[in-house]
Each structure stands twice: as C-alpha cells, then as structure tokens.
Design goal:
The structure is a homodimer. Chain A is an alpha/beta fold. Chain A has three domains: 50 residues, lambda repressor-like DNA-binding domains (434 Repressor (Amino-terminal Domain), Orthogonal Bundle), CATH 1.10.260; 130 residues, Response regulator (Rossmann fold); 132 residues, Rossmann fold (3-Layer(aba) Sandwich), CATH 3.40.50.2300. Chain A is 41% helix and 15% strand. In chain A, strands 2-1-3-4-5-11 form a six-stranded parallel beta sheet. The longest helix of chain A has 17 residues. In chain A, 46% of the residues are buried. At the A-B interface, helix 4, helix 6, strand 2 and helix 7 of A face helix 4, helix 6, strand 2 and helix 7 of B. The first copy, chain A, binds a DNA duplex through helix 2 and helix 4.
Chain lengths: 341, 341
DNA sequence: ATGAAAGCGCTAACAT
DNA sequence: ATGTTAGCGCTTTCAT
C-alpha cells in the first residue's frame, strides 16, 4: 500500500495540513519543518494521490490531444512529433496527455472522445485539420481549446500555427534567388488553410520579384497531399509545360512524389529541375539528392500548444491568441543555382 | 458545474447509494427505480466523476503505454497502430491510456515515466524492444506488466507476440513453392528476438524442403532494420552472389531498400528477383510492384495486450501467459513463380 | 430493495 | 507558523 499524507504527517510529527503546504511549496512554512517533512517524504517514497488531489481541486490534471486517425497514422512522423512536444511540456505542470483519434470523415452520428463526455480533461489540444462537424459538436462542452497547425473556419479559440505564408515566401524566394523563373507550385487539398497560405507566399514572392504569375504552373487539387498525388500532379504539370525549371511542393511527401516522377522520366535533379518541399520530415534524409525544404519545428509547435492551453485553463478569458511559429529554410541538394556566373 | 451523484439522487428522489448501484449496474435494484434513475441521468447528462471513483476504488483507471522514441517516430505507422488497438480496447473497461516514450539508449541515469513514479497507472504495456536497463529499473515497482511485440531476455510477465517463426516459415515456403532455391535472408539487428525467429522460420522452411542452408545467402547485422540498411545489405549480397533469385527481408522497410538497390542496378522485380517482406505496412502500397509480405495484425496486437493487462490487474497471479498472434501471407506482385510449367 | 453514513487522500478556510 | 476540520464525489458496509 502506498503511503498517504497521513503517514508522512505522523512520522514527521506534524499535521497533514503542514505536509500539504510543503508539497505545494507554500512560502508560509518554516525552512526547518519543510526540511524535516521533505526528508520523511523521501524516506517513505511518498507521492501524493492524483485522484485525491483532482477530486478536491476539481481539476483532472489531464489534457486531451485529438487528431484524425489518418494524421496519426501518417507515414511521416509529423503529428507524433507535435504530440511528443506537448508530452514533454506537460511535465511542467504535471499534466497527463490523453490521446484520442477521430475518423477523418467524422459526421453527426459519431461520438466524441470519451474523455470529453466524462469530463476527464481540463482542456483540449486539436492537432491538424479536423472535420467541421466535430468542432461543432465540441462547442457544447465549453472546454478550453487550442488548435495547433490548423485554423478552423470560424472559431475563436487560440491558435498555434506555423507561419505558412512566410514559409511559402521563403521557399519561392530561394528558387528565384537561384535564378529560376518558371516555378511550379504543387499542392493538394487547396481547401486547407495551410496549403492556401503557402500558395499565397509563393505568389507574393513572384510579385516581389516582378515575375508574372502563371496559372499553368500552379497545380492544386482536393486530395490529400501525399506522395502518390505528388507523382500524379507532376505528371500532369510536366506533360503540359516543358519549360518548368523548379518546383515548390506544398509538403515533403508531395515533393518526394514529384522527384520519383521526374526520375522515372529521365529528368535529373537538380540539374534539370530544382525541387523544394515543406515540413522537413525524416524521409527527406533517405532520398537522393537530399531535399531542400522549409523546416517546421514540430516539437516546438506541440510544446507551445501546451503552454497556451495551460494559460487558457488558468485565465478562462482566453484572448483570441494566435501564435505564429517561424519556419526556416533548409538548403540541401535538390535545388540548384542556375544563374550565369 | 457538472451534475453530481447528489443532484441525480435528489431529482430522482432516491439516495445517492441507489444511484451508485444503478451506475454500477447492480442486480439488486428494482427495474422500476433503475429506469427512473437512468432517466434523470440522461436528463442531466450526468457522468460520474472519475477522480472520485478512482479515489474510493484505489485504482487509477489508467494504463501506461511505453515505447522507445524511435519506435514512436518510426516512419512506418507500426507502433502507432498497436497503440490505436489498445486505445480502442481501452474503451471497454473505461481505461485511459497514458503514452510515454523513453530514449532508446535508456541508461541508469534516466528516470522512469512520471506516471510510474506517481503511481498513476494500474498497469503497463511495453511495446517493442526496450533497453534492459529500463526493464530492470521498472522491477522496483511491482506493477502488472505486459510486453507486446518483444520478448525480454529474462522477465516473467505475460507476452503478446507475433508468431515470427511461423511468419518466417510462411514467407520462405512461399518462395520455395514458387520454385526458388537460392533464397537470401536479409535482417538487421540479429540480437532482436523477432528477427532471430524469422530467420529460424526461414531455416526451417529450407530444411523442410531439403534445401541446403547456405550461409552466404544470409545477411544480418546489428543495425536498425530500415530502408537504408536494406539497400546496403542488398549491395553486399548481390555483389558476391549472382545466383540469388529471391530475397526474404526481415521487414518491409528493408525489403523496400532491397527493391531500390535492385532497381538502381538494372534488375527487374519480380522477373529477375522475387522479394518478400514482413509487417505489411502502408508504404507497401505505394511501391511498384506491390510487395508480397507477411501481414502482422498490429491493431489486434494492441487490443490483445490491453485485454491481457486488464486480466493481470484483476488476478494479480498473472500466469506467464504467452499469446501468439498469427500472421498471414499476403501475395502481391513482387514474387514470381519460376517453376517450369 | 433502498437509505444512512463512514471514509478514500487531499486541500483550504479558519483557528490557534 | 502550524493545527483542526469540513468537504470534494463517489462506493460500500450496515441498517431498515
């Protein structure tokens, strides 16, 4: 049987209240008794009971982390990294993260994760794009919420986002600086705000450099931005446009698909075509040549989300806070400077 | 404020004890009152407080799920699928899963996941290979344990394993049935019991068919069985042995690496060389030709692990139960029948 | 079949 | 600075 606060109190010859004060690091306790109590705590290897604390504090000490199952099962460890970031940050504040996935085609007949129904969480982090029907249903429970890496259509919860516009700008500007003019953009699921923003950044970079936007160079679709769809998009683009010298793919998965298409069709990278991706996932390191990309600090995103939700739990007057996490250009070998020296 | 058992009791004009009996589905309650109480519960959207229940029952209602961080971040969603299986099964019994990762080079100076120190879990599921130092440290806390997809050297906890020997047998036998005689085995980290077992199955299949084992056809190493190492292993094997007609790779990641090597070197698959993998991960579907493999029911593994841990929590006299989950041969297009018709 | 009441381990208001 | 005590929401004897 694990020792209780009473055991500690008795052994240290103080009251349970004193022990409680020590545990909670109150300043109104003498250094002497504090030391004494701490010693007993260590001796007994005492750890406060979470359920007792939760019961009296009317908190659960848990944070829900929700994402769609296809995001969780994504081939590239993108959201798992974000999760790890929240897990890490949760240690400060001693929160536990409860992970739940929802179907990506969540509809009205689906139920909410049970930690919501059972009110076992103090707040919720939602990672990545989730169906609107889910968000709507969630509204009934007024739990502190924070979205990470997704901006829902209408929802005034705090947001932790990557600076996608800036990222798109960085990516396209890099290609322009390398002398490219005929730069394609390949994106899936254009209804996704992140992808739209990356495209916006791309357009802005062209404008900044006085390069005329060319619709033929922009390929978007409604499908998931994965390797296969990158392959297919490249096929379409390159069959119609022989003059493309560089491709900005909206994420690394699609970029890799593009590379496969090009290789299968006799192009060499980066001699014939330069490619830049977005995300900086591990797969990048396995491919040849190593992919130039925009690095997204996934772990930081998660940690930041946890900080925000902690704050929201404390001050329920959550501002419509938006945190924009900066991204970084990582130049590797899939892009080539084609300026005449 | 969420309604409490007292609110329900008052509104239903019964005692809290009665409500409790209803919640816990006791048989010693009249159908009539039960119905009445249930109605009020629904009206109020009442859900029992977990912390109060946990406090009185001296249980936490949580299960820890531990794996190394590189397994969690694995490119193929293998362990995430297992996790999803436990999550799913956890709904029966209303458990929450607390996920924690440990460093894959866990040593004496590392700490245990805090849900163990804080005794916030009733049992622990350990997924995949974990360092011995970790297991040793874990012993101090006598928590119910179950290992899934890993058999530690000495540890008498229940085990949920894939039938790797059977899988190896199935894989090699398939190739033999297809007329192959010079069959290579490619494996990483031969200290891993699963990989050893797959090799055992391979050897057994050769024996069964009276094919002489040839050490030159077996390549193992101490490194992580990933794509790159598969590529490198194939390079070594094929530079020395021109007569190999089929490869059994110890997992799909390595198999894909092998395929890349072969393609880069002018072999066509399966015309020149047949390949079979192990795991059946999603990546298989993206490659060309689709990979013949041994399917591992990952979700089931996780679900099974949770069932076992639930059982261990109830009857602390956990037998040294070993559950062997069967695998299945999935024939796709990377293997070719070369028998003369 | 149902109710009254004690108690799980802790915190916080109040008392000393 | 430290102790006393009520009470958080629930389960579980023990009565009735």
């Amino acid at each position: 049987m694990a020792p209780t606060i009473k055991d500690v109190a008795e052994k240290a010859k103080v009251s349970t209240a004193t022990v409680s004060l020590v545990i909670n690091d109150s300043k109104r306790i003498s250094a002497e008794t504090k030391k004494k109590v701490l010693k007993v705590i260590k001796q007994l290897n005492y750890h406060p009971s979470k359920s007792a604390r939760d019961l009296v504090s009317q908190k659960t000490g848990n944070i829900g982390f929700i994402l769609t199952d296809d995001h969780f099962l994504r081939t590239e460890p993108f959201y798992t990294r974000i999760f790890l970031g929240t897990e890490f940050e949760a240690r400060t504040g001693n929160y536990y993260i409860l992970l739940a996935t929802i179907p990506s085609d969540y509809g009205d007949k689906n139920t909410l994760p049970r930690f919501i129904l059972q009110r076992s969480v103090d707040g919720i982090i939602i990672a990545g794009k989730v169906p609107n029907a889910f968000i709507t249903k969630l509204q009934e429970y007024d739990l502190p919420l924070v979205f990470v890496d997704y901006k829902p259509e209408m929802q005034k919860s705090p947001l932790v986002l990557i600076d996608n516009i800036q990222g798109g700008l960085l990516a396209a500007t890099h290609l322009i600086n390398y002398g490219h003019r005929n730069i394609a953009f390949i994106g899936g699921d254009i209804s996704h705000p992140s992808i739209r923003d990356r495209l916006t950044g791309y357009n802005r970079a062209l404008d900044n450099s006085g390069i005329k936007q060319n619709k033929k160079f922009v390929h978007t679709s409604s499908s998931y931005p994965n390797r296969q769809n990158g392959y297919d998009a490249a096929k379409i683009l390159f069959s119609k446009n022989k003059n493309i010298t560089a491709v900005f793919a909206c994420n690394d998965a699609m970029a890799i698909g593009v590379m496969h298409f090009l290789r299968d069709n006799g192009y060499s990278i980066p001699q014939d075509v330069s490619i830049i991706g977005f995300d900086d996932v591990e797969a990048d390191l396995l491919i040849d040549p190593p992919l130039t990309t925009i690095r997204v600090p996934k772990f930081d995103l998660g940690a930041e989300a946890l900080r925000v939700i902690k704050e929201s739990i404390k001050n329920s007057n959550t501002k419509n806070k938006i945190i924009l996490v900066p991204v970084e250009l990582i130049v590797r070998e899939s892009t080539k400077n084609i300026r005449k020296k």
